[in-house]
Amino acid sequence: MTTATRTTATSILPLQIRNLRFVRDSRTLIDDLELDLGSEGLTMILGANGSGKSLLLRLIHGLLTPTSGSITWAGVPVGDSTRSRQAMVFQRPVLLRRSTAANIDFVLKLKKRFDPARRDQLLEQVNLLEKSRQPARLLSGGEQQRLILARALALEPEVLLLDEPTASLDPASTLAIENIVNATRDSGTKIIFVSHDIHQAQRLADDIVLMHAGKVVEHAPISDFFSAPVSEHAQGYIRGDLLT
Amino acid sequence: MPDIGTAFSMAFNLIFSLNADLLEIIGLSLRVSLSAVVLSSLIGLPLGAFLAISRFPGRNFVLVIVNALMGLPPVVVGLIVYLYLSSSGPLGWLQILYTPAAMIIAQTLLIAPIVTALTRQVVEDLNSEYEEQFRSLGVSRSSQISALLFDARFSLLTVALAGFGRAIAEVGAVIIVGGNINHLTRVMTSAIALETSKGNLAQALALGIILLTIALIVNALVMSLRSAASRQAFA
Hints:
The complex is a heterodimer of chains A (about 240) and B (about 240). By secondary structure, chain A is an alpha/beta fold. Chain A has a domain of about 140 residues: P-loop containing nucleotide triphosphate hydrolases (Rossmann fold, 3-Layer(aba) Sandwich). Chain A is built from 9 helices and 10 strands. Chain B has about 240 residues and is an all-alpha fold. Chain B has one domain: MetI-like fold. The chains are: A alpha/beta (about 240), B mainly alpha (about 240). At the A-B interface, helix 3 of A face helix 5 and helix 6 of B.
């Protein structure tokens, strides 16, 4: 696995999930899920649509409350205190109806760290500095997602949760996002990345969690996942079978 | 009584001659209605935003009440304000009955529910888009309200416009609490009612034309501002 680590005595990692169930409208969407994630690298959560990937991300971020089971970050149950040390990027960009710069300023002010130089540095990092005064919602899809990433990084998160951030982007925009994600991972931030793109997993992941029907069916380092998949679902996923 | 053509001609003469009495009435109408819009916005914007993002037992009941208050009959509001401000009423010591202040209070009570209910709808729609992101960011309730109000600012202009439209066109409440006193509490609508009853159609028509023109100008300004904001993706 890549990188330096920011793991310290006060780190919120590792993540431990036990017997997690989430039921909505009598449908079991997450079913007795168990998962342990370490403090380093990029974990890619793969799976077909409806397998529960995005739901799991919301549960571990504390945006949803499980029906039963436990989610702990370094032994601390998921909640406001753990969420404040994470940042999440949603599949559909949620941008304030303000300028590009004001979208970053909003988060910096929220965290009482407002600093125009820091904002410009973040915009530079995602190559949007020259568009800082432009209305954020007039940016292209790729630019909007880069701005969302910059806004997430403004929080200086220990864990960055990404819910299919490149799902609707062209290859050039996807590459730009992946470069930022790689740099963030290399700086020691733990990344949990939801995707259904197996090639993206090959490019980015340090370890892969494969989900099917609300369960984790395989969790392995990238090399093992592709060279020696254990579960039938993982073998089928790698072959390109259409999982339902 | 002049025929309608003559009445229109006399009305335009009055307008273009910048008749002092007419200007005084227009000025007071704008002062009273704009003050009421500002006051009701100070009450209705935060209250509407709070109702939009809050979930509490009885919320639906509160929403039904606020929506119902949008249709408050002006004469009833006028009567209630009159009872409170009359010398024997609980606020009689203020001695503001038959003054513009009483008219502003009556109009504020009339349009605050409109501003509150429409703000609630606008902010609730925007919040459905922002809510999950705000929760992720750990935005406090007060920051959430101020951010939503700021981001909905151009839609909320239309809300304020709806309040202004109701206030400037209202006659029942201002006559009851203002008394339609010449040079003191006479506004456009109460003057139109009076001049019509006196058969002075030219004066009434002149005021009616001005009232319509003001409504048109204010609407056009707000619409153009909103459309500019939409082009810039701020609305």
